[in-house]
């Protein structure tokens, strides 16, 4: 090829054309990096959002009971639960029955997962036997025991990720790998954000364009129109889902929490030096007394209780239903009087806490059928967007070529100042994006010099 031909060929390329070629290139790289894991995340996310219905079918006999007479004390239910786990197990927390048909949930840390289902009481061991896939979770050290609050009969037990909700959450967040693999999903989410921003730029109508799918279009043109239209139509949902997902990721999450704390938007926290006041002649509250004291002071929502660690410790109480963020509550109760030494409800939350308090349950589909329906449409839309992108790629790609979108000379110089500022903000917020972008820049430099030699 003539070495002077290429510059002359493109010297009249407009700023808009060079800029568009740059964003096409970035959009392609983002899709290449994110698509495999994003597709898995979308499919596993669709499965995860139907957790309430699936768990209702699987665990109705554990979560719900038939009300008969008066409830026994919470202490009696806990005593029964202790018989379903090894004697060395430590009690972590308890969720008392909220509705009349609810069971009591007692959470333990197991000393030895191999004996997670051991029981010193034959009847309790027999009732705990239906717990699903115990043998497959011998490495788990946590367990929840379900107890009938009216009879204190042990209904069953789950360890580790045996429960479908825990399993599907781990599948969606780590693909059933250890937490050290969470970075893969975070990397995909980071590049999905880049796909979203560059995709909106590429779709944005210019001149006489309408940006809507046109009748009569066929082949790659039709795929491109629907790919862009659906991607942009889902852009608001995409931004919410990606943002809320990144808030509890490892590296980007650390950056979000650092920014949150630096501007004073962290949730109210109880002082670390809170202690109970010992009252002569008054014994510390029992579990039932603590539950009653908490119920008198908390909104009408299911609560989770954690007992004091010692005589001067306090009871920790928090809401257990994320689907009702406006009833969120966190309390520290005096172990003798039951008075709240610390109290924080929805009104005390910061703007950031309120946003995540609504955004994260929405991400998980915990607000009911309408939330699940929106997420189902979103998930299917994402699957279509990803697959249609690859359909267009293979329709465009010439045999024997890499299929990279053509990058016009001077394209990188055409990046607007706002684009560089946006990129810098994204790099700070998403460290994995910055690291992978550096690797990508190395590849681009190599391709650039290889093409120059070829010319």
From TrEMBL:
<protein>
    <submittedName>
        <fullName>Iron-regulated membrane protein</fullName>
    </submittedName>
</protein>
<feature type="transmembrane region" description="Helical">
    <location>
        <begin position="224"/>
        <end position="248"/>
    </location>
</feature>
<feature type="transmembrane region" description="Helical">
    <location>
        <begin position="414"/>
        <end position="447"/>
    </location>
</feature>
<dbReference type="InterPro" id="IPR005625">
    <property type="entry name" value="PepSY-ass_TM"/>
</dbReference>
<keyword id="KW-0812">Transmembrane</keyword>
<feature type="transmembrane region" description="Helical">
    <location>
        <begin position="183"/>
        <end position="204"/>
    </location>
</feature>
<feature type="transmembrane region" description="Helical">
    <location>
        <begin position="26"/>
        <end position="50"/>
    </location>
</feature>
<feature type="transmembrane region" description="Helical">
    <location>
        <begin position="373"/>
        <end position="394"/>
    </location>
</feature>
<dbReference type="Pfam" id="PF03929">
    <property type="entry name" value="PepSY_TM"/>
</dbReference>
<keyword id="KW-0472">Membrane</keyword>
<keyword id="KW-1133">Transmembrane helix</keyword>
